[in-house]
């Protein structure tokens, strides 16, 4: 029945294209064709370096994947070979992968659940295929497993939100915490749009009739975006205590940040990707609250009437994994409106007569809280 439902929505040959944006930056362009037995696509991407990739998925009758072939072209001219080839063959509860290693290749075998999908971030033809398969199951929520590296899988789910809108989220394994992605799948099984707003990857994906793949491959070759949110560390000595904050630094990219990219009245990771880490070698007083020596994570709660800084006892987690029961303290902050926007998030320490001031600045907002040695 599942195979029949999927086949009913699939024409002899289908095609589509996607433009993927993050704010005012175009991250990638992609195009694909699909038949009942194969999905073939190509895309050019600018992060972290410029690459052109061609993927071919041989499909089972139920829409799952039997074989993946992936060819990567190093169009940016950086280190490494100009072309590499990978393959993955899925059979029962096993996948056999062939990957390049130097001038030869290496074959690995991994146990995976039946129906596991190969998956890479920013490949929306494959994500569309997962969504089509999930909808064909006829349930409100369906779990799936994705092969996300040569040694690891990740678990996730696709859930109906109403009408033709679905939500995809990873919650297990290597990609746990990636998402949620809200998307629309029309009656023909086309991904018409996708939004990562509020997720780790706040991309906007638009379906278009076609993309200038050859032109984009040439123009993107020397215009890589690098890491979208680089990691940085702010350090200070507060009364002799060594204090540091390790955090991801997203860029504004033409977007309105607070109340849009960062929702109000919801706890924010105060950075990007992994949770923002905070460490102190001695007991501190932060915003009037005692913080014993140790390692923590920092979060904030922005609202229209003020912000709170949250110091949480859980460490080492992804930035979507926040547990309020682990809070050590929540303290009020000072909030200022800046005259000029700050393009890239900055967390820092400013000297003060009593120790230091911890500051968070992005767009036209600056948040600060006093820090002193106890």
Short description:
This protein is mainly beta and about 375 residues long.
Q: Can you describe this structure?
A:
Residues 7-11 have low confidence and may be disordered. The radius of gyration is 23 Å and the shape is elongated. Helices cover 7% and strands 54% of the residues. The strands form three sheets. A 15-stranded mixed beta sheet has the order 8-7-6-5-4-3-2-1-15-14-13-12-11-10-9. Strands 16-17-18-21-22-23 form a six-stranded antiparallel beta sheet, with no helix packed on it. It has 374 residues and is mainly beta. Strand 11 (153-162) and strand 12 form a beta hairpin. The protein starts with a helix and ends with a strand. The relative contact order is 0.11. It has two domains: 2-220; 230-373, no CATH class.
